[in-house]
Amino acid sequence: MFFSGRNDEFDEDQGLAPWADQDAIRWIGTVESWINMAILIQKTLNQEPRKYPHQIRAAASLVIMFARPNLWPAERAGILSIEDVAGLARRQLAQVKHQFSIKARIEPELKRDPTYRKLMDSLDEELRILESRVSEEEYELPEKPPGSWKEFWHEDRTTEN
Amino acid sequence: MTETSDLSPFAHPKAQRYFATLLERSGFVAEVEEILQLDDDILELSHTRLLSAILLFIGRPGIWPDEQKRVLARAASRLSRQSKQIQESGNQPKKKRKPLTLSQHQRLSELEETIKVELELLRRRAGVSNRVSKIAQPESWGKLWS
């Protein structure tokens, strides 16, 4: 970090994001449960989308949050690279979306349901974000979380069930 | 499909059970509690900030267990205490440290502002902030979603 909190050291070349600090990155790589979490997320993403759509979408949301340079523990054995985990999440989430589309084909009234449309729109946004992590091309995405995530930082509500 | 108006990936009961299982099986919540008790010479400010950033992502309704909000509050308290090191560093007599350049002063000030936002976000996640004004991620975090 620019300021390490140790010996008043200053390093002007580092960014100020919490994951820009090399020492902190090395340290989080030693936190066993953080590595376990990455492994478990990968395992979930390898499940069958028809059987576990909500779990796969949940795991893909964590990939959206964590699969960024220096944060995702890609250098560890058994852990996919950012591109690979984002690619896996994208493919599986696309399958989840496909399952919801099949359901709407069977129940056509679903297609007229605004809730269904909003869900599909949010899935598209989640897929586009994952695509941007995989693509070598520059993506021009709005700098905001997917629509259904609402005010991600400001949110202060209890989740409805 | 969820029957509620909340269509986020954090709302469906199956997703919430998944997050709970993930946090339990990985041992993340328990290890974070242990980490937050470490001395400052082991858990430095930069480590606390990175841990807090992860907690900011997942310390939210639907993912983080309500009964473990105290862990978020502890992290906020630790970040608050350790961030004072920056102010203390700036207030040290000049003979004790090398004088800062103008750009270092500016960066130090940016860092202070960044941590202030991180701290407020974490307090809100922990439910220990009374503020209700709209808040966004710190600017220095850069592009988060693309």
Give a quick set of tags describing it.
heterodimer, A: 161 residues, mainly alpha, 50% helix, globular, disordered C terminus, B: 146 residues, 5 helices, 58% helix
Task: Note down, in words, how this protein is organized.
The complex is a heterodimer of chains A (161) and B (146). Chain A has helices spanning 22-28, 32-45, 53-66, 82-106, 114-134. Chain A is mainly α and 161 residues long. Chain A is globular and about 55 Å long. Residues 157-161 of chain A have low confidence and may be disordered. Chain B is an all-alpha fold and 146 residues long. Chain B is 58% helix and 0% strand. Chain B contains five helices and no strands. At the A-B interface, helix 1, helix 2, helix 3 and helix 5 of A face helix 1, helix 2, helix 3, helix 4 and helix 5 of B.
- Radius of gyration of chain B over all CA atoms, rounded: 18 Å
The termini of chain B sit apart by 26 Å
Would you identify the regions of chain A where 5 or more consecutive residues have pLDDT less than 50? 157-161
State the order of secondary-structure elements of chain B, H for helix, E for strand: HHHHH
> Strand portion of chain A, in percent?
under 5%
Biggest sheet character of chain B: none
Q: Give the largest chain-chain interface (CB within 8 Å).
A: A-B, 75 and 75 residues
Secondary-structure blueprint:
The complex is a heterodimer of chains A (161) and B (146).
Chain A: H1 22-28, H2 32-45, H3 53-66, H4 82-106, H5 114-134
Chain B: H1 13-26, H2 28-35, H3 45-58, H4 69-91, H5 102-126
